Amino acid sequence: MAAAGGDSNGDSDSEEMLLTPAQLIHSLEQAWLNEKFAPELLESKPEIIECVVEQLDHMEANLKRAKKGDLKVSVHHMEIERIRYVLSSYLRCRLVKIEKFFPHILEKEKSRAEGEPSVLSPEEFAFAKEYMANTEAYLKNVALKHMPPNLQKMSLLKSVPKPNLDSFVFLRVLEPQENILVEPETDEQREYAISLEEGSQHLIRYRTVAPLVASGAVQLI
Amino acid sequence: MAAERAMELVRELHRAAGGHLPPFRTDVLRQALEEMRALYERNQADVSEAKSGRTDLIFLIRFRHCCLLRNQRCLLAYLYDRLLRIRALRWEYGSVLPNTIQFHMSAEEVEWFSRYKKSLATYMKSVGGEEGLDLTQDIKPPKSLYIEVRCLKDHGEFEIDDGTTILLKKNSQHFLPRWKCEQLIRQGVLEHVLS
Protein backbone atom coordinates (compact mmCIF):
# COMPACT_ATOMS: atom_id res chain seq x y z
CA MET A 1 0.00 0.00 0.00
CA ALA A 2 2.11 2.87 -1.20
CA ALA A 3 0.46 6.23 -1.15
CA ALA A 4 1.88 8.63 -3.66
CA GLY A 5 1.27 12.18 -2.56
CA GLY A 6 1.08 13.58 -6.04
CA ASP A 7 -0.46 16.82 -7.22
CA SER A 8 -0.34 19.52 -4.59
CA ASN A 9 -2.76 21.75 -6.44
CA GLY A 10 -0.37 23.73 -8.54
CA ASP A 11 0.78 26.92 -6.92
CA SER A 12 3.67 27.24 -4.49
CA ASP A 13 5.01 23.80 -3.62
CA SER A 14 4.99 21.88 -6.84
CA GLU A 15 7.64 19.39 -5.81
CA GLU A 16 6.40 15.81 -5.85
CA MET A 17 6.44 14.22 -2.46
CA LEU A 18 6.35 10.54 -1.92
CA LEU A 19 5.13 9.42 1.45
CA THR A 20 4.64 6.06 2.99
CA PRO A 21 1.23 5.64 4.63
CA ALA A 22 2.85 5.91 8.04
CA GLN A 23 4.47 9.24 7.14
CA LEU A 24 1.20 10.44 5.70
CA ILE A 25 -0.71 9.67 8.87
CA HIS A 26 2.06 11.24 10.90
CA SER A 27 1.80 14.47 8.93
CA LEU A 28 -1.97 14.43 9.32
CA GLU A 29 -1.57 14.06 13.07
CA GLN A 30 0.91 16.91 13.13
CA ALA A 31 -1.42 19.19 11.21
CA TRP A 32 -4.28 18.14 13.47
CA LEU A 33 -2.44 18.89 16.71
CA ASN A 34 -1.13 22.19 15.43
CA GLU A 35 -4.60 23.22 14.35
CA LYS A 36 -6.09 22.15 17.66
CA PHE A 37 -3.71 24.20 19.76
CA ALA A 38 -3.03 27.26 17.62
CA PRO A 39 -5.29 30.21 18.38
CA GLU A 40 -5.61 31.22 14.73
CA LEU A 41 -6.51 29.31 11.58
CA LEU A 42 -3.43 27.72 10.03
CA GLU A 43 -2.73 27.15 6.38
CA SER A 44 -4.90 24.47 4.83
CA LYS A 45 -3.27 21.20 3.80
CA PRO A 46 -5.27 20.02 0.80
CA GLU A 47 -2.67 17.53 -0.34
CA ILE A 48 -2.60 15.71 3.00
CA ILE A 49 -6.37 15.53 3.18
CA GLU A 50 -6.63 14.27 -0.37
CA CYS A 51 -4.06 11.53 0.24
CA VAL A 52 -5.64 10.45 3.51
CA VAL A 53 -9.03 10.17 1.88
CA GLU A 54 -7.51 8.10 -0.92
CA GLN A 55 -5.74 5.95 1.62
CA LEU A 56 -8.97 5.37 3.53
CA ASP A 57 -10.81 4.36 0.36
CA HIS A 58 -7.97 2.07 -0.52
CA MET A 59 -7.97 0.41 2.89
CA GLU A 60 -11.71 -0.06 2.81
CA ALA A 61 -11.55 -1.64 -0.63
CA ASN A 62 -8.83 -3.99 0.63
CA LEU A 63 -10.93 -4.95 3.61
CA LYS A 64 -13.88 -5.86 1.42
CA ARG A 65 -11.69 -8.38 -0.35
CA ALA A 66 -10.39 -9.86 2.86
CA LYS A 67 -11.50 -13.22 4.21
CA LYS A 68 -14.37 -13.33 6.64
CA GLY A 69 -13.60 -13.84 10.28
CA ASP A 70 -9.95 -12.96 9.87
CA LEU A 71 -8.59 -11.43 13.02
CA LYS A 72 -6.63 -8.89 11.04
CA VAL A 73 -9.82 -7.49 9.58
CA SER A 74 -11.01 -6.05 12.85
CA VAL A 75 -7.61 -4.57 13.58
CA HIS A 76 -7.60 -2.83 10.23
CA HIS A 77 -11.16 -1.68 10.77
CA MET A 78 -10.15 -0.05 14.00
CA GLU A 79 -7.30 1.65 12.21
CA ILE A 80 -9.67 3.07 9.61
CA GLU A 81 -11.98 4.33 12.31
CA ARG A 82 -9.11 6.02 14.08
CA ILE A 83 -7.80 7.71 10.96
CA ARG A 84 -11.25 8.86 10.03
CA TYR A 85 -11.71 10.32 13.47
CA VAL A 86 -8.49 12.33 13.22
CA LEU A 87 -9.42 13.57 9.76
CA SER A 88 -12.95 14.58 10.80
CA SER A 89 -11.72 16.19 13.96
CA TYR A 90 -9.12 18.16 12.02
CA LEU A 91 -11.64 19.48 9.51
CA ARG A 92 -14.16 20.18 12.24
CA CYS A 93 -11.63 22.14 14.19
CA ARG A 94 -10.95 24.29 11.13
CA LEU A 95 -14.66 24.87 10.56
CA VAL A 96 -15.12 25.97 14.15
CA LYS A 97 -12.32 28.49 13.75
CA ILE A 98 -13.73 29.72 10.46
CA GLU A 99 -17.13 30.26 12.05
CA LYS A 100 -15.59 31.99 15.01
CA PHE A 101 -13.32 34.39 13.16
CA PHE A 102 -14.96 34.59 9.74
CA PRO A 103 -14.75 38.38 9.23
CA HIS A 104 -11.03 38.42 10.00
CA ILE A 105 -10.25 35.37 7.92
CA LEU A 106 -12.13 36.72 4.92
CA GLU A 107 -10.46 40.10 5.34
CA LYS A 108 -7.05 38.45 5.35
CA GLU A 109 -8.03 36.47 2.30
CA LYS A 110 -9.00 39.69 0.51
CA SER A 111 -5.69 41.39 1.23
CA ARG A 112 -3.68 38.31 0.34
CA ALA A 113 -1.02 38.96 -2.28
CA GLU A 114 -1.12 37.13 -5.57
CA GLY A 115 0.75 33.83 -5.35
CA GLU A 116 0.76 33.73 -1.57
CA PRO A 117 -0.86 30.50 -0.37
CA SER A 118 -4.32 30.89 1.08
CA VAL A 119 -5.18 29.72 4.58
CA LEU A 120 -8.51 28.48 3.27
CA SER A 121 -9.15 25.65 0.87
CA PRO A 122 -11.57 26.59 -1.96
CA GLU A 123 -14.36 24.67 -0.22
CA GLU A 124 -13.69 26.39 3.08
CA PHE A 125 -13.60 29.74 1.33
CA ALA A 126 -17.02 29.10 -0.20
CA PHE A 127 -18.33 28.05 3.19
CA ALA A 128 -16.93 31.12 4.94
CA LYS A 129 -18.41 33.45 2.35
CA GLU A 130 -21.84 31.86 2.60
CA TYR A 131 -21.68 31.97 6.38
CA MET A 132 -20.79 35.65 6.36
CA ALA A 133 -23.50 36.58 3.85
CA ASN A 134 -26.09 34.56 5.72
CA THR A 135 -25.29 36.08 9.09
CA GLU A 136 -25.11 39.62 7.75
CA ALA A 137 -28.43 39.27 5.97
CA TYR A 138 -30.03 37.89 9.10
CA LEU A 139 -28.85 40.70 11.37
CA LYS A 140 -29.85 43.29 8.82
CA ASN A 141 -33.32 41.85 8.38
CA VAL A 142 -34.18 41.35 12.00
CA ALA A 143 -32.69 44.38 13.69
CA LEU A 144 -30.49 46.75 11.73
CA LYS A 145 -33.01 47.87 9.17
CA HIS A 146 -35.43 48.84 11.92
CA MET A 147 -32.88 51.00 13.64
CA PRO A 148 -32.41 54.75 13.12
CA PRO A 149 -30.60 55.58 9.86
CA ASN A 150 -27.28 56.48 11.48
CA LEU A 151 -27.08 53.11 13.25
CA GLN A 152 -27.96 50.79 10.40
CA LYS A 153 -24.38 50.06 9.50
CA MET A 154 -22.36 47.67 11.54
CA SER A 155 -18.96 46.22 10.91
CA LEU A 156 -18.66 42.53 11.70
CA LEU A 157 -14.93 43.02 11.51
CA LYS A 158 -15.09 45.21 14.58
CA SER A 159 -17.73 43.29 16.49
CA VAL A 160 -16.46 39.74 16.14
CA PRO A 161 -13.45 39.04 18.38
CA LYS A 162 -10.06 38.47 16.80
CA PRO A 163 -8.00 35.37 17.45
CA ASN A 164 -5.81 36.00 20.47
CA LEU A 165 -2.30 35.61 19.12
CA ASP A 166 -0.82 36.42 22.52
CA SER A 167 -2.12 33.26 24.10
CA PHE A 168 0.48 30.79 25.29
CA VAL A 169 1.12 27.45 23.64
CA PHE A 170 3.14 24.38 24.50
CA LEU A 171 5.50 23.22 21.83
CA ARG A 172 8.15 20.66 21.06
CA VAL A 173 11.07 21.60 18.83
CA LEU A 174 11.59 19.48 15.74
CA GLU A 175 14.33 21.48 14.05
CA PRO A 176 16.82 23.45 16.17
CA GLN A 177 16.41 27.23 15.97
CA GLU A 178 18.67 30.03 17.01
CA ASN A 179 18.08 33.65 17.87
CA ILE A 180 14.35 33.68 18.21
CA LEU A 181 13.43 37.16 19.37
CA VAL A 182 11.00 37.20 22.27
CA GLU A 183 9.07 40.41 22.61
CA PRO A 184 8.89 41.99 26.06
CA GLU A 185 5.73 41.39 28.00
CA THR A 186 5.98 44.40 30.27
CA ASP A 187 7.66 47.75 29.79
CA GLU A 188 10.49 46.96 32.18
CA GLN A 189 11.65 43.93 30.25
CA ARG A 190 13.76 44.12 27.14
CA GLU A 191 13.58 42.11 24.01
CA TYR A 192 15.80 39.05 24.20
CA ALA A 193 16.75 36.15 21.99
CA ILE A 194 16.49 32.48 22.77
CA SER A 195 17.64 29.34 21.00
CA LEU A 196 15.46 26.31 20.74
CA GLU A 197 17.18 22.95 21.00
CA GLU A 198 15.86 19.99 19.16
CA GLY A 199 13.54 17.88 21.26
CA SER A 200 13.15 20.51 23.98
CA GLN A 201 9.71 21.66 25.09
CA HIS A 202 8.62 25.20 25.76
CA LEU A 203 5.70 27.29 26.87
CA ILE A 204 5.70 30.47 24.87
CA ARG A 205 3.47 33.09 23.34
CA TYR A 206 1.98 31.97 20.04
CA ARG A 207 2.88 35.21 18.25
CA THR A 208 6.58 34.56 18.78
CA VAL A 209 6.58 31.12 17.23
CA ALA A 210 3.82 31.47 14.64
CA PRO A 211 6.25 31.40 11.67
CA LEU A 212 7.93 28.29 13.09
CA VAL A 213 4.61 26.52 13.45
CA ALA A 214 3.79 27.38 9.86
CA SER A 215 7.12 26.07 8.60
CA GLY A 216 6.87 22.88 10.64
CA ALA A 217 10.00 23.55 12.69
CA VAL A 218 8.07 23.17 15.93
CA GLN A 219 5.11 21.03 16.90
CA LEU A 220 2.39 22.29 19.21
CA ILE A 221 1.53 19.83 21.96
CA MET B 1 -34.95 54.50 28.92
CA ALA B 2 -31.26 53.66 28.98
CA ALA B 3 -31.34 50.44 27.01
CA GLU B 4 -33.07 48.48 29.75
CA ARG B 5 -35.07 46.34 27.34
CA ALA B 6 -32.03 45.38 25.34
CA MET B 7 -30.13 44.61 28.51
CA GLU B 8 -32.99 42.42 29.64
CA LEU B 9 -32.55 40.31 26.50
CA VAL B 10 -28.83 39.93 27.03
CA ARG B 11 -29.33 39.08 30.67
CA GLU B 12 -31.88 36.45 29.82
CA LEU B 13 -29.44 34.71 27.48
CA HIS B 14 -26.71 35.00 30.04
CA ARG B 15 -28.88 33.27 32.62
CA ALA B 16 -29.82 30.46 30.24
CA ALA B 17 -26.40 28.87 30.50
CA GLY B 18 -25.13 25.73 28.87
CA GLY B 19 -26.19 26.52 25.32
CA HIS B 20 -29.88 26.31 26.17
CA LEU B 21 -32.08 28.26 23.75
CA PRO B 22 -34.81 30.32 25.41
CA PRO B 23 -37.84 31.45 23.39
CA PHE B 24 -37.27 34.32 20.97
CA ARG B 25 -38.62 37.52 22.49
CA THR B 26 -40.19 39.31 19.59
CA ASP B 27 -42.10 41.74 21.78
CA VAL B 28 -39.10 42.87 23.79
CA LEU B 29 -37.06 43.24 20.64
CA ARG B 30 -39.78 45.40 19.15
CA GLN B 31 -40.01 47.53 22.28
CA ALA B 32 -36.27 48.06 22.28
CA LEU B 33 -36.37 49.10 18.64
CA GLU B 34 -39.21 51.50 19.42
CA GLU B 35 -37.19 52.96 22.27
CA MET B 36 -34.37 53.55 19.83
CA ARG B 37 -36.70 55.28 17.42
CA ALA B 38 -38.03 57.55 20.18
CA LEU B 39 -34.52 58.42 21.34
CA TYR B 40 -33.49 59.17 17.79
CA GLU B 41 -36.46 61.42 17.12
CA ARG B 42 -35.93 63.42 20.29
CA ASN B 43 -32.29 63.77 19.43
CA GLN B 44 -33.14 65.04 15.97
CA ALA B 45 -35.43 67.64 17.46
CA ASP B 46 -32.83 68.73 20.00
CA VAL B 47 -30.10 68.89 17.39
CA SER B 48 -31.97 71.53 15.46
CA GLU B 49 -32.54 73.44 18.71
CA ALA B 50 -28.88 73.20 19.57
CA LYS B 51 -27.96 74.55 16.17
CA SER B 52 -30.01 77.61 16.87
CA GLY B 53 -28.01 78.42 19.96
CA ARG B 54 -29.00 76.13 22.84
CA THR B 55 -25.59 74.62 23.48
CA ASP B 56 -26.66 73.21 26.85
CA LEU B 57 -28.51 70.49 24.96
CA ILE B 58 -25.36 68.99 23.53
CA PHE B 59 -24.69 66.85 26.60
CA LEU B 60 -28.18 65.45 26.49
CA ILE B 61 -27.77 64.63 22.82
CA ARG B 62 -24.52 62.87 23.51
CA PHE B 63 -26.06 60.89 26.30
CA ARG B 64 -28.92 59.79 24.10
CA HIS B 65 -26.53 58.80 21.39
CA CYS B 66 -24.62 56.61 23.82
CA CYS B 67 -27.90 54.97 24.78
CA LEU B 68 -28.59 54.32 21.12
CA LEU B 69 -25.19 52.72 20.64
CA ARG B 70 -25.66 50.61 23.71
CA ASN B 71 -29.05 49.49 22.47
CA GLN B 72 -27.62 48.54 19.12
CA ARG B 73 -24.80 46.62 20.68
CA CYS B 74 -26.98 44.72 23.11
CA LEU B 75 -29.53 43.77 20.49
CA LEU B 76 -26.93 42.53 18.06
CA ALA B 77 -25.18 40.60 20.79
CA TYR B 78 -28.48 38.98 21.66
CA LEU B 79 -29.21 37.96 18.09
CA TYR B 80 -25.67 36.80 17.34
CA ASP B 81 -25.37 34.74 20.48
CA ARG B 82 -28.63 33.01 19.64
CA LEU B 83 -27.26 32.16 16.20
CA LEU B 84 -24.22 30.57 17.81
CA ARG B 85 -26.44 28.48 20.03
CA ILE B 86 -28.57 27.39 17.09
CA ARG B 87 -25.42 26.49 15.22
CA ALA B 88 -24.31 24.26 18.09
CA LEU B 89 -27.68 22.50 17.92
CA ARG B 90 -27.02 21.50 14.31
CA TRP B 91 -23.99 19.55 15.49
CA GLU B 92 -25.79 18.05 18.42
CA TYR B 93 -29.09 16.98 16.92
CA GLY B 94 -28.35 16.62 13.23
CA SER B 95 -30.21 18.42 10.48
CA VAL B 96 -33.70 18.03 11.97
CA LEU B 97 -34.25 19.83 15.24
CA PRO B 98 -36.72 18.60 17.84
CA ASN B 99 -40.04 20.43 17.85
CA THR B 100 -39.56 21.88 21.31
CA ILE B 101 -36.49 23.75 20.12
CA GLN B 102 -37.99 24.87 16.81
CA PHE B 103 -40.83 26.33 18.80
CA HIS B 104 -38.35 28.69 20.46
CA MET B 105 -36.91 29.99 17.21
CA SER B 106 -38.14 32.96 15.20
CA ALA B 107 -39.01 32.55 11.51
CA GLU B 108 -35.82 34.37 10.52
CA GLU B 109 -33.75 32.13 12.72
CA VAL B 110 -35.27 29.08 11.09
CA GLU B 111 -34.31 30.53 7.73
CA TRP B 112 -30.75 31.23 8.89
CA PHE B 113 -30.55 27.70 10.21
CA SER B 114 -31.65 26.13 6.95
CA ARG B 115 -29.09 28.20 5.04
CA TYR B 116 -26.42 27.18 7.49
CA LYS B 117 -27.38 23.54 7.05
CA LYS B 118 -27.11 23.93 3.31
CA SER B 119 -23.63 25.51 3.38
CA LEU B 120 -22.44 22.87 5.78
CA ALA B 121 -23.85 20.06 3.64
CA THR B 122 -22.18 21.51 0.54
CA TYR B 123 -18.91 21.69 2.38
CA MET B 124 -19.11 18.16 3.74
CA LYS B 125 -19.96 16.81 0.32
CA SER B 126 -16.94 18.52 -1.23
CA VAL B 127 -14.36 16.97 1.10
CA GLY B 128 -13.38 13.38 1.30
CA GLY B 129 -13.93 11.60 -1.98
CA GLU B 130 -17.13 10.95 -3.88
CA GLU B 131 -19.63 10.57 -1.08
CA GLY B 132 -18.17 13.31 1.05
CA LEU B 133 -17.34 13.04 4.71
CA ASP B 134 -19.96 13.45 7.39
CA LEU B 135 -18.13 15.59 9.91
CA THR B 136 -20.93 15.35 12.43
CA GLN B 137 -20.03 11.69 12.87
CA ASP B 138 -16.99 10.47 14.78
CA ILE B 139 -17.30 13.20 17.38
CA LYS B 140 -15.51 11.18 20.01
CA PRO B 141 -12.34 9.20 19.46
CA PRO B 142 -13.21 5.55 18.84
CA LYS B 143 -12.44 3.34 21.80
CA SER B 144 -13.59 0.01 20.46
CA LEU B 145 -15.05 -1.45 17.31
CA TYR B 146 -18.13 -2.90 18.90
CA ILE B 147 -20.45 -1.29 21.38
CA GLU B 148 -23.33 -2.56 23.43
CA VAL B 149 -26.67 -1.10 22.45
CA ARG B 150 -30.22 -1.48 23.65
CA CYS B 151 -33.24 -1.16 21.35
CA LEU B 152 -35.73 1.47 22.32
CA LYS B 153 -38.20 0.74 19.52
CA ASP B 154 -39.07 -2.13 17.21
CA HIS B 155 -37.00 -1.51 14.12
CA GLY B 156 -37.30 -4.79 12.23
CA GLU B 157 -34.43 -6.66 10.65
CA PHE B 158 -31.03 -5.08 10.36
CA GLU B 159 -28.16 -6.30 8.28
CA ILE B 160 -24.57 -5.95 9.43
CA ASP B 161 -21.51 -5.84 7.24
CA ASP B 162 -20.72 -9.54 7.26
CA GLY B 163 -24.17 -10.39 5.86
CA THR B 164 -25.88 -11.67 8.98
CA THR B 165 -29.17 -10.10 9.88
CA ILE B 166 -30.42 -9.49 13.37
CA LEU B 167 -33.84 -8.57 14.63
CA LEU B 168 -33.98 -5.26 16.44
CA LYS B 169 -36.77 -5.77 18.94
CA LYS B 170 -37.72 -3.39 21.68
CA ASN B 171 -35.68 -3.85 24.86
CA SER B 172 -33.31 -6.35 23.30
CA GLN B 173 -29.59 -5.79 23.71
CA HIS B 174 -26.96 -6.29 21.03
CA PHE B 175 -23.27 -6.05 20.55
CA LEU B 176 -22.83 -4.29 17.23
CA PRO B 177 -20.18 -2.52 15.18
CA ARG B 178 -20.10 1.13 16.16
CA TRP B 179 -20.12 2.57 12.65
CA LYS B 180 -23.38 0.81 11.87
CA CYS B 181 -25.09 2.07 14.99
CA GLU B 182 -24.21 5.73 15.13
CA GLN B 183 -27.04 6.74 12.82
CA LEU B 184 -29.62 4.62 14.65
CA ILE B 185 -28.52 5.93 18.02
CA ARG B 186 -29.05 9.45 16.81
CA GLN B 187 -32.48 8.58 15.45
CA GLY B 188 -33.40 7.26 18.86
CA VAL B 189 -33.82 3.65 17.79
CA LEU B 190 -30.85 2.39 19.75
CA GLU B 191 -29.32 3.49 23.00
CA HIS B 192 -25.66 3.10 23.84
CA VAL B 193 -25.37 1.08 27.02
CA LEU B 194 -22.57 2.35 29.17
CA SER B 195 -21.54 -0.06 31.84
Count of individual helical segments of chain B? 6
Gyration radius of chain A (Cα, Å) is: 22 Å
Unreliable residue runs of chain B: none
User: What is the general shape of chain A?
Assistant: flat
Q: Please give the largest β-sheet of chain B.
A: 3 strands, antiparallel
Poorly predicted runs of chain A are 1-16
The H-and-E topology of chain A, N to C, reads as EEHHHHHEEEEHE
As laid out across the biggest beta sheet of chain B, the strand order is: 4-1-5
Q: Kindly state the mean pLDDT of chain B as a whole number? A: 81
Beta strand % of chain B: 5-15%
Quaternary organisation of the protein chains:
heterodimer
Q: Tell me about the biggest sheet of chain A?
A: 3 strands, antiparallel
Written account of the structure:
The complex is a heterodimer of chains A (221) and B (195). With 221 residues, chain A is of the alpha+beta class. Chain A is built from 6 helices and 7 strands. Chain A has helices at 21-37, 46-65, 71-110, 122-142, 156-159, 206-215; strands spanning 3-5, 17-19, 168-173, 177-182, 192-196, 201-205, 218-220. Chain B has a 3-stranded antiparallel β-sheet with strand order 4-1-5, with helices on one face. In chain B, strands 2-3 form a two-stranded antiparallel sheet. In chain B, β2 (156-159) and β3 form a beta hairpin. The mean pLDDT of chain B is 81. At the A-B interface, α2, α3 and α4 of A face α2, α3 and α5 of B. Chain B: Residues 47-127 form the GINS subunit domain. Chain B: Belongs to the GINS1/PSF1 family. Chain B: It comes from Malurus cyaneus samueli.
Which features does this protein show?
heterodimer; A: 221 residues; alpha+beta; 3-stranded antiparallel β-sheet; two-stranded antiparallel ribbon; 6 helices; flat; disordered N terminus; B: 195 residues; mainly alpha; 55% helix; 11% strand; elongated; GINS_bundle-like_dom_sf (chain A); SLD5_C (chain A)
